[in-house]
Amino acid sequence: MKLLLKDGKVINPVNKTITIQDILIADGKVAAMGKELAASLNLDLDESTDGRSTVPVDSNSGFQPVFFNNKETSKNACPPIFVINVKDKYVVPGLIDLHVHLREPGFEEKETIATGAQAAARGGFTSIVCMPNTEPPADNQAVISYIQQTAQKTGMVNVFPTGTITQGRAGKELSEMASLAEQGVVAFSDDGAPVVNAKLMRHAMEYAKMLNLPVISHCEEPALAYGGVMHEGFMSTMLGLAGIPAAAEEVMVARDIILAGLTGCHLHVAHVSTAGSVELVRAAKEKGIKVTCEVTPHHFTLTDEVVSSYDPHTKVNPPLRGKVDVAALHAGLKDGTIDVIATDHAPHTPEEKELEFEIAPFGMVGLETAVGLVWTKLVIPGILTACEAVAKMTVNPARILNLKKGLIETGGEADITVIDPNLTWVVKPEEFAGKGRNTPFSGWSLKGLPVVTMVGGRVKWMKLDK
Amino acid sequence: MGLKEKHLLDMQGIAPEEIKLVLDTASSMKEILFRSIKKVPTLRGRTIANVFYEPSTRTRVSFELAAKYLSADCINISAAASSVVKGESLVDTARTLKAMGADVIVLRHPHSGAPYHLAKLVSACVINAGDGTHEHPTQALLDLFTVQEAKGELAALKIAIIGDILHSRVARSNIWGFTKMGATVRICGPTTMIPVAVERTGAHLYTRIEEALDGVDVVMMLRLQLERQQQGLFPSIREYTRLYSLDRQRLALAKPGALVMHPGPLNRGVEITSAVADSAQAVIDTQVTNGVAVRMALLYLLAGRFAGGEE
């Protein structure tokens, strides 16, 4: 099957350029790209021709494929070329989310690899990195292999598993990290359960360095955070909810940066949420320590003030922080201290989540609202350019994980996302493809939506008028 | 005029005129308490459900008596702490009460914010009888009533609240209540038990009890939860008592005739000496009596107007 993305504004996040180009996709690869490519292919693109046909969409989520004008008039009557008109839309490398909880195996009531992958496709992500806090945890080759095979069977998006740092995420003994690496994990993390023992963390970093893989650290000093359910500040005082101080995160960020300096391991700090963390990462980068970090859309969008309703959908770890922190996250995104935007997609069932705030679990879903929030809260207000925002969701995570992805280039894998920056839509959790409905953004009006998600040259999600 | 909302969930959101209305109504109710036949037919045919997820004798009995003096039917539901862990019980209990048609639900719950959760699930009026470490609005109203009764006017008074402010729902509600009525609130305790940014509520912060007591009209002592010591919030009962206990000598720093209050139950010899607790300045028993009057006023204002939550 051949596909032509016509007249799109193609973003190259490496050169930071936007050019209007056509992209021809054949056999899962980018076959050619350039201006007026459609004309050089001698395609009959007379708009008046009423040759309606359907681009095959792999999504089995029950969505109606969209009809539009299709020209199959290549000169030698070769196999048809499906044309998708993406004029005025951004054509970007397939988005990569390096922080997703797919919940399978073990918590299939919250999400499965299949539903999580559907949600990813809907959200414009062609590759996702899943965290190892499953049951059993992804601390051995069998679980990793299960995830890989299930993802492949699902056939929606690329799923890259992470392996645990310690066996059972218990923080006591190292996992068989080399075996996990052999099985194809892209990073190590005990996400959700910080490695408290500093010596063990040191050894994990030394070992990961030998394997040339990054360690993703969920930075939280558990004793300082103990019992806390929201950001410690005036809001927690008013609401009578136990606070998680910014220091609980920053103490651990500082420790892990120091250990990264000691070991030379690549440290990736997951979901930074405080001004202090941003400052620590900035200083570490200036010193030349190999550290990168990510921020979630909910942390750069919301403050702890939204907790005032005691709505458990606003409960997340790290917690939503104060205004000063959100401003620092924006500054960190802008100056490059924050390399990546990742969702920390954390689905839960309504039965679990709709409880009293203090006993509801932490976490919110993010895959299907990420692009809308990035555009509405960062690109439109001018905090990031479209190129910068796209880089933080494509080439930057690809580099951190040593993936050959994140750029549209001739001969490369055709993982491509099309974003309509002018489309305004309303967040309706009941229409999510993923199982989780736990979002604080229900009813929000957002501008910017992924309208085509293509993985390996096949369309996995498409929502176009024509 | 009546209360703006059909629930009483917190003091933070209540307006000064509403507080005044409750206190005025409580005055009339208190008169009933001193009649030989302490019963009026005002709420006949209304049902009040006391739903207590935490043990409490004082508050529950106070609401129960208030309901009975007003001729309402009153049922008590105590849930074992273990069933709260999973939380479904609040939703299910709410459904049950809704189906049975309770007009007012009085909720005591160990989790901050639980009454908001309940108010969304039922049509009945919800009264917060203490939620976690958030608020205890009826306690604040009875404290305001007690002080107003003794001092005449709330504005321009100085109130010192001493003890574990961090975990105290009584302190939070009283900070809002007294501040709204124009009084000055001082809070005092070890820094480990002072919540972050508490000054933004309008309260003034002290760590030395002697300074906090200087010239105040009212001293409110909070109960010290002895298990806080294990959490590292203070080194020993001995040192806490040395620094923060209210004894005669310290009380002398307050204005002559200053009121001594305590929400109970008391740790005699810890946060307050018996000599002070049993002195003429202590109004601890009056607080209990006034609690019934204030809760009668609230039940009257809510259940009198809303049947099954409908006006």
Question: How would you describe what is shown here?
Answer:
The complex is a heterodimer of chains A (466) and B (311). Chain A has 15 helices and 19 strands. Chain A has helices at residues 37-40, 113-122, 141-154, 177-183, 198-210, 222-225, 234-239, 246-263, 275-286, 297-301, 323-335, 350-353, 370-379, 386-391, 395-400; strands at residues 2-12, 17-26, 29-34, 52-54, 67-69, 81-85, 90-93, 95-100, 125-130, 158-161, 215-217, 230-231, 243-244, 267-269, 291-295, 340-341, 416-426, 445-455, 458-462. In chain A, the strands form five sheets. In chain A, strands 1, 2, 3, 6, 7, 17, 18 and 19 form an eight-stranded mixed sheet that branches. Chain A folds into two domains: 2-90 and 414-462, Roll (Urease, subunit C, domain 1); 93-400, Alpha-Beta Barrel (TIM Barrel). The two termini of chain B are 13 Å apart. With 311 residues, chain B is an alpha/beta fold. The longest helix of chain B has 20 residues, at 284-303. In chain B, 52% of the residues are buried. The model of chain B has no long low-confidence stretch (mean pLDDT 93). A five-stranded parallel sheet of chain B has the order 7-6-5-8-9. In chain B, strands 2-1-3-4 form a four-stranded parallel sheet, with helices on both faces. The chains are: A alpha/beta (466), B alpha/beta (311).
Any chance you could write out the topology, listing elements then pairs?
The complex is a heterodimer of chains A (466) and B (311).
Chain A: E1 2-12, E2 17-26, E3 29-34, H1 37-40, E4 52-54, E5 67-69, E6 81-85, E7 90-93, E8 95-100, H2 113-122, E9 125-130, H3 141-154, E10 158-161, H4 177-183, H5 198-210, E11 215-217, H6 222-225, E12 230-231, H7 234-239, E13 243-244, H8 246-263, E14 267-269, H9 275-286, E15 291-295, H10 297-301, H11 323-335, E16 340-341, H12 350-353, H13 370-379, H14 386-391, H15 395-400, E17 416-426, E18 445-455, E19 458-462
Helix pairs in contact in A: 5-8, 8-9, 9-11
Chain B: H1 16-33, E1 47-52, H2 58-69, E2 73-78, H3 81-84, H4 88-100, E3 104-109, H5 114-121, E4 125-131, H6 137-151, E5 158-162, H7 169-180, E6 184-188, E7 204-206, H8 209-213, E8 218-221, H9 237-244, H10 248-251, E9 259-261, H11 274-277, H12 284-303
